[in-house]
Design goal:
Alpha-Beta Plaits, 2 domains, Beta-Lactamase, alpha+beta, single chain, 8-stranded mixed β-sheet, 7-stranded antiparallel β-sheet
Length: 403
């Protein structure tokens, strides 16, 4: 028999139980902060507390494996044989499984006695032998990102207090699952963009001078920052698949230009990209090369924007260019290292980009002075930019020649 979530009678939590719940929540939050991307490790802590505080004999947390199927990633109280079954066999999202019922209904569901419910058909039942079951969807911002199944060997429904405890920890599990999902998206984009980095960079950092460069050094660089205009409203209205398709094409087309001009892609964050020139590979005229790169990026973007507009997406590109000395080197931690530029020159490029109109390239005063033999520009006056105490004189590029 399937029971609604509000049928059990609450027992009332004692002071000791409430204290135990608070201690458990603190441990989970600490684990999330220390290891935000350790899916199995953190969820193992979550499921352990969840089972104990809900007085369950066993519990398993599931995440999507492919369309229509979930897999168990963390469990407590499950025999070795049952755990092997969970990991080797995906759980289908059908009415015959407690996970399927929870995900499909989007709510807490219970099976009072699996022995008297012919519609419950999960094959692992005979390996495990539980009688009462509860399934709880794990959601993040209205998206179902996982589910938890809890079981008892005796016939005894979970009460309202126990359901509330499981929901609390399901919210914590959602944070971990979503962190890992986002990391996967970032890593796949990073791998895609990595093939646009100049091969000379890899050769240089593996040379005898590579360790010195990675350790940190100071050098004059040209920074170019670009991002999309109208991206936020587009991302809110479009389907996620459409957003990713647009970003992939945008990164691919502009990434090829970055490589052609010897630029180093420091980072990208969604629609924003920070590029610097003259490090780690020296470029004699890095300012001129950076401005020429910016112009080519803008021109290439025109064709992309026209095609996207026919699909109903109105996007523009803004670019900021600055030049100055910065400290460059390796940052991050083991397994997640990057090569970054640190200094006001990078901040200035980002702030100039932020005020650029669609199709506009804004140069710092110093950048224009270095390319004034080939560039024409219109003064924008002194701009009040976030993070800079004094107004910054800037110019909008109006023309470029090879004279």
């Amino acid at each position: 028999m399937v029971r609604a979530m509000d049928e059990p009678t609450p027992t009332g939590s004692s002071a000791a139980e409430l204290a135990a719940q608070l201690d458990a929540v603190r441990e989970v939050l600490r684990a999330i902060s220390e290891s935000p991307f350790d899916l199995e490790g953190v969820l193992g802590i979550v499921v352990r507390h969840m089972a104990k505080l809900a007085h369950s004999d066993q519990a398993v947390i599931f995440v999507p494996s492919r369309e229509g199927f979930y897999r168990g990633v963390a469990a407590v109280g499950v025999s070795a044989e049952g755990l092997a079954f969970e990991r080797e066999n995906e759980t289908p999202l059908v009415h015959g499984t407690i996970v399927g019922r929870a995900v499909l209904s989007g709510d807490v569901v219970q099976v009072e006695d699996t022995a008297n419910d012919p519609s419950y058909t999960w094959e692992g039942q005979k390996l495990v032998g539980f009688r009462t079951l509860m399934g709880v969807p794990i959601s993040k911002e209205s998206r179902t990102v996982g589910a938890v199944g809890l079981g008892r060997f005796d016939v005894r429904l979970f009460d309202a207090d126990e359901i509330a405890v499981v929901k609390t920890f399901a919210d914590q599990a959602a944070i971990v699952i979503d962190n890992v999902r986002l990391l996967g998206t970032i890593e796949s984009q990073r791998e895609e963009l990595a093939r646009y980095l100049p091969s000379t960079v890899a050769e240089l950092v593996s040379s005898p001078d590579g360790e010195r460069l990675l350790a940190g050094h100071r050098r004059e660089v040209t920074c170019v920052f670009c991002d999309l205009r109208g991206f936020t409203s587009f991302a809110e209205a479009a389907e996620p698949e459409e957003v990713l398709d647009i970003l992939r094409e945008y990164h691919r087309e502009l990434g090829a230009i970055i490589v052609a001009h010897g630029g180093t892609l420091e980072h990208f964050a969604g629609d924003g990209m920070m590029i610097f020139l003259n490090d780690p590979t020296p470029i004699d005229d890095h300012v001129g090369e950076g401005v020429r790169m910016a112009v080519e990026m803008r021109d290439r973007f025109v064709g992309l924007a026209d095609r996207w507009r026919r699909l109903g997406f109105d996007l523009g590109l803004g670019i900021g260019v600055s030049v100055g000395f910065a400290t460059l080197g390796r940052i991050g931690f083991e397994g997640h290292l990057g090569y970054a530029v640190v200094g006001s020159v990078a901040n200035l490029a980002a702030r100039l980009c932020a005020v650029a109109e669609p199709g506009q390239i804004i140069l710092s005063e110093r950048a224009l002075a270095r390319v004034d033999s080939i560039a024409t520009a219109a003064s924008l006056g002194a701009l009040e930019l976030k993070g800079f105490r004094r107004p910054i004189v800037a110019y909008a590029l109006t023309g470029l020649s090879e004279g």
